[in-house]
Every structure is written in structure tokens, then in C-alpha cells.
Amino acid sequence: MTYDILLALIVFAFVSSITPGPNNLMLMASGANFGFRRTIPHMLGIGLGFTVMVLLVGAGLVQVFDRYPISYTVLKLASVFYLLYLAWKIAHAAPTKGKDAEGDPMTFLQAAAFQWVNPKAWAMALTATTAYTPDHTLQAIVIVALIFGAVNLPSVSTWTVLGQQMARILTNPRRLVVFNWTMAVLLVASLYPVLWPN
Question: What letter would DSSP give residue 196?
Fold first, then answer.
């Protein structure tokens, strides 16, 4: 991997990790509802889960989609239904009561598993493994995965901090309900490129 490709990969990893998407919207909602500390397993699950996903996609999982196109359609449908379920959970999150917020944030394993039904994660993984590993060697795939792992965690943490800071504004239960519904609607809206690609 050349220096130019490595630099381009780092920029791609940062931009794709920091921009809004299902992971970041859920982290902002979790930060607002549960605080930073209780959202740490969720953040770590995203970081490690996506790193493993890049490794497996780069190692050949994409060939399954090429050989069995129906599997991609099944994955897309599962993604849509799961994101709708998560949006419903965010919209109906109970108002927080300081450190004793009702409900539970997403766990490490839930967040890691969510990457496999996250349309943005699939787009990122497929782009990264096809565009930034010109020789498709295992070494190049590992480098791509490690770059994403290093860049992703600070990026997603930013969204949790943003949500945590918004919690100061969301002390009124009515404002929190509006915030949660807004996050749920945005999460559903993030499905638009999946359902109606250009």
C-alpha cells in the first residue's frame, strides 16, 4: 500500500466514521439518555465489530454476494426491519432520571452484531476493501481494518459526547421525547439511500 493510498484511506475512514449514520445517531441518543459511561460498551462494540466486519468482508465474504445475489436482498430487508425496530426503541425511550435512567443502552455484543445489518457499515466496508486494497492481499486488508479501528472509536465517541451535552438541554421530559422522536425519524431517514439508490 502506497503512502498516497494510505493517506486517502485515513481521510475516507475519518469522513465516513464521523458523518451521520445509524451508529452515530444511536450513540447521540444513547449519550443523551444514558450518559457517556453507560454508552462505552456500545461505542466499543461499534469499533471492534466494524473492524472485524472489514476483515471478513475483505477476506472474501463479498464473493458470497456475487455468487448468491439473493443473500444481499435478504440482508437489506433484515437491515430495514432491524433499523425500524431500533428507531421505535429510541422513540419510546423512557425519560432519564439522572444516573438512574430507565432502560438499558445497547450492549457491546448488540452493537458489534448491529454492524452486520447496518447499511452504512456495509457501504463503508465494501468501499474500503475494494478501493483501498488494490492488490487484495491479507496484509492490505488488515491495514484497512486497523486504520478503521483507530479512526472509528474517536469519531463515534464524539457523537456520544454530543448527546451527553445535549442532555443538559433535555432536562425537561417533553424536550427529551421530542429529541428521541427526532433521532428515531433521522434513523429511519438514513434508510433512504438503501431503499432508493441513485
Answer: S
φ/ψ of 106, rounded to 5, equals: -65, 140
Give the DSSP letter of residue 112: H
Q: Which residue has the cell 474517536?
A: 154
Query: Which residues in the chain land under pLDDT 50?
Result: 98-100
Among 28, 60, 21, 46, residue whose Cα is nearest residue 148: 46
Q: What is the pLDDT of residues 11-54, one digit of tens each?
A: 888 988 888 888 998 999 999 889 999 999 999 999 999 999 99
> For residue 50, which amino acid is it?
F
Exposure of 41 in the CB half-sphere (CA atoms within 13 A): 10
The number of beta carbons lying within 10 Å of the beta carbon of residue 180 is 22
**What is the reported pTM?**
0.76
Q: At what angle do helices 69-91 and 173-189 cross, to 10 degrees?
A: 170
Interior/surface letters 153-165, b for 16+ CB within 10 angstroms, e for the rest: bebbbebbeebbe
The whole-angstrom separation of Cα 96 and Cα 78 is: 30
CA 141-144-147 angle, to 5 degrees, is 150
Enter the C-alpha cell of residue 104: 438499558
Strands (E), the chain: none
